[in-house]
Amino acid sequence: MEKKTVYIETYGCQMNVADTEIVLSVLHKAGYTPTSELEGATLAFMNTCAIRENAEEKVWNRLEHWRGFKKRNPDAVVGVLGCMAEHLRKDIIKSSMSIVDLVVGPDEYRKLPTLVDATRATAESGIAVKLSRTETYDDIMPFRAEGISAFISVMRGCDKFCTFCVVPYTRGRERSRSLTSIADECKQLEQQGFREITLLGQNVNSYDDEGKDFSDLLAACARAVPNVRIRYTTSHPQDFDQKLIDTMASHDNICKYIHLPIQSGSDRILKLMNRTYTRDHYMGIIEKIKLAMPNAAMSTDIIVGFCTETLDDHEMTKSVMREVEYEGAYMFNYSPRPNTKAYDTLADDVSLEEKSRRLNEIIVLQNEISARKNLIEVGGEHTILVEGRSKRNEIEWKGRTDTNKTVIFPRLDAEVGEYRRICVTRATSATLFGQLMDQKESKTIMPHSDRGEVIYDALPHVGSAVSIDRQNHAFELPVINS
Ligand code: SAH
Ligand code: SF4
Ligand code: F3S
Fold first, then answer.
1. Widest distance between CA atoms in the chain
2. 153 lines ligand 3 (CB under 6 A)
């Protein structure tokens, strides 16, 4: 019998990367082998994102591209999964002129084998987009590619309803996996050779397993695998508390890197966004973090040009960036999303041209701040997790600091998955360069001073990725997104 294969392209955030691993696991159990070749695949899926208009445009363009594939492989089942499936539902089948056979939302992945069979038997398109209040895929072991870095989704959904955001509609209500199953999965991952685990949720501070909160979970994971680094994303400033700060500070293997999206520096805009905190509250958290973990690195998300944003509001965003001095920021033009409160009730009244001008301004500012902060690192030491070759050449490898910065260094005897001490010798706004310290020959290697400012590994973030490189989630470069 012919081998059944499944090909998946993943767009969007890390939660989608983790979901793709769930989908592969479900389908593997049903007899499908994952393939990295679209051509000839029995199932061809895109796991999609709806966060901004351009995220959806990418998928439409890609579907257009797949028209030829469908012609050559008429028996293949083409599916759109994920947030765009949930957001646009049957419109996807209607407007893609029939190349899409299946539309499946994020809570319906268990049904995939049955849906595929039904579609093949009837030649009719299938759609499953019901959201669940309980589905966490807790019992499904994700089908992970080999590597050193793994994701675990610890909760799904979001109840925050920021007025600009589509996620509460595409992912449904918040629900958490059990603490014990997550800690057990950490141990299994360690046994499989993973050296870094990132706990994922749209709003991890809402984690709740019968009264056990996110700090309890983080501590349990850190204790379960003391030789593995633990990271997490994303926190919401409203619920970020002292207990979480203390938990981070008291475990060596919890990375001292916090992604804490602020979105805007103006209280008026924060209110319109329904972010439920003020700038003062946010700055209070930053103060507490810096007090407990002076070397912790901070990053953020910022939206420019939100409805009614004035130049004064924009200046307040710039001033908060200067005040916090983030190591990095993901910055976006506001993109109105159908179904959201802002779309329904507020005018998108900042022109695209003006949004782009403001975006450019904050990117320039962030680059200056990142460059300054990276420069301070020169002469300092870090323990890095060795990730492998840099994109530049075979001699230079890359690793990641606990503060989530990429360090490029001459490989010498370094192996993937090792923790090594490194001394920083040079820095750009995007990358650190260094030398291994625990290796004699490293002293004889030329520093990179003859090279000019080369920026490595420019990395697209949420919603801008054409299939995410799973090893590659360091904050490196701000990306213009739309
Ligand atoms: N749950 C996370 C973020 C999820 S989406 C949080 O609350 O912080 C990632 C980022 O995309 C958001 O932080 C926001 O900056 C951006 N984003 C979300 N909706 C957007 C929209 N409609 N237009 C532009 N950017 C948006
Ligand atoms: Fe969206 Fe706000 Fe939820 Fe983040 S917290 S996913 S921005 S609604
Ligand atoms: Fe969904 Fe993540 Fe995009 S939750 S909308 S894939 S950012």
1. 68
2. no
Q: Rounded to two decimals, what is the model's pTM?
A: 0.91
**433 DSSP assignment:** E
Phi, psi of 198 (to 5 degrees): -110, 120
Helix or strand run (H / E) with residue 128: strand 126-128
49 CB near ligand 3 (under 6 Å): yes
Q: Is the CB of 88 under 6 A from ligand 3?
A: no
Sheet containing 149-153: give its strands across: 149-153, 196-200, 229-233
234 Cβ closer than 6 Å to some ligand 3 atom:
no
Between CA 38 and CA 187 the distance in angstroms is 34
Contact residues for 173 (Cβ-Cβ < 8 A; gap 6+) = 131, 133, 157, 159
| CA distances in angstroms from 78 to 38, 40, 70, 259, 464, listed in the order given | 11, 12, 8, 35, 22
408 Cα to the center of ligand 2, angstroms: 34
Q: Which segments of 69-118 are extended strands (E)?
A: 77-82, 102-104
The CB of 481 under 6 Å from ligand 3? The reply is: no
Cβ contact 125:101 at 8 Å: yes
Taking residues 437-450, what's their average pLDDT? Answer: 45
Token duo for residue 340: 């959201």
Q: Which domains does the chain have, with CATH numbers?
A: 5-128 (3.40.50.12160), 149-373 (3.80.30.20), 378-448 (2.40.50.140)
CA angle 346, 89, 20 (to 5 degrees): 105
What is the number of alpha carbons within 13 Å of residue 274 lying toward its C-beta?
12
Supply 53's token pair: 């208009």
Cα–Cα distance between 66 and 480 in angstroms, integer?
A: 27
pLDDT tens digits for 155-200? 999 999 999 999 999 999 999 999 999 999 999 999 999 999 999 9
DSSP codes, 22-69: HHHHHHHHTTPEE-S--TT-SEEEEEE--SSHHHHHHHHHHHHHHHHH
Nearest CA to ligand 2 atom 4: 202
Query: Encoding tokens for residue 193?
Result: 């050779």
